[in-house]
């Protein structure tokens, strides 16, 4: 990946940071709402502005509160983003004017070694003129006037960023080693999902070896799905943290609905999904619903039991969870069930290794010859039924796709093939052809009858 310069967007709550972030990356990646404090963790994305390429970081609204509080922990993430950045965009709301918190942020930024570009957002029309004049008193130079929502002022922002970002000095992308198959596939896209407070953000922080994501005893801290690039034993991984998903009946707040929708979108983006359970709470019906959502999207699924270091009656708990999964997710037998501890880091290496192995099975393709030799033996061992005395003739099987693996079965009267026999074939494909517990799709196809007309 190219080594892009980094631009951080900072400011008090509700000045339009996430709107500007979405404008720069060209997608609605960050959640946006009228209420303040929507963004909590810092989100990164690749941005392009009139040919100027850079990495942009969206941060939480800066609030001057105790470091142990949730706003205080959010502020620490913002401070880390500024320290990491090549240049920071300090956003103010031109319509609201300068408030005391803006002045407090400006005092902090003047002591920073990171170059600062002052940006007056919501500057369209005449309503923001007084705020722009007030911004001159912050001691950070003339503000760049723009409207992130309407895309006005992007040319002026380009001119302000250009002296700090060298487009010609970007490092070239590293070439993938020819003998390393995992580089050819790209980074492992690994999403961590589960109910609130299962320890998803804590687990990712332990993997990274830093407090990259905000954690705490409060439920529902994570709102956006945050993707973070990481290297595990020289192999690239893209970790995706998601918001906790409660029962649908309990989700009434608009912002929580947006967070859950973002988490479901992250599942669709992922290759392998880890369902994280809380060992102190066991397996609940909501966990099965979340797992089923991942399987319905065709993602490879791993179940990890977190907080194993404080679990009681570990053996019976593990066996009970495995048994409940076999019964509740009967469409996929033999799901990997692992134990981890986000607090101590135990089991994380095993989890990542199993994730890579699972992706390999999820991406596997079987040759037509090998597939049909297996298919003939399977049909000979258990011939299809003959409903109404009419025999169902199965001709051949072919693999149409991978990721997830999909197969097409050709034959006559296949529309009458019972689901039990289809499951027999799917389970045999998984068991005998190296697909393990990944979702397998089977499509039935009958040849066209030339006498239909």
UniProtKB/TrEMBL annotation:
Give the keywords, sorted.
GTP-binding, Nucleotide-binding, Repeat, Ribosome biogenesis
Q: Which GO terms describe its biological process?
A: ribosome biogenesis
Residue sites binding GTP 2 per the record: 194-201, 241-245, 306-309
Q: Which GO terms describe its molecular function?
A: GTP binding
Tell me where in this chain the EngA-type G domain is found: 5-169, 188-363
| Cited Pfam families | KH_dom-like, MMR_HSR1
Q: Which InterPro entries match?
A: G_ENGA, GTP-bd, GTPase_Der, KH_dom-like, KH_dom-like_a/b, P-loop_NTPase, Small_GTP-bd
Positions of GTP 1 binding: 11-18, 58-62, 121-124
Q: Gene3D superfamilies recorded for this chain?
A: 3.30.300.20, P-loop containing nucleotide triphosphate hydrolases
Q: Which SUPFAM superfamilies match?
A: P-loop containing nucleoside triphosphate hydrolases
Q: Does the keyword Repeat apply?
A: yes
Xref: CDD domains? EngA1 (cd01894), EngA2 (cd01895)
Q: How does it assemble?
A: Associates with the 50S ribosomal subunit.
User: What is the purpose of this protein?
Assistant: GTPase that plays an essential role in the late steps of ribosome biogenesis.
User: What family does this chain come from, according to its entry?
Assistant: Belongs to the TRAFAC class TrmE-Era-EngA-EngB-Septin-like GTPase superfamily. EngA (Der) GTPase family.
Its name, as the record gives it, is GTPase Der
Gene name of this polypeptide? der
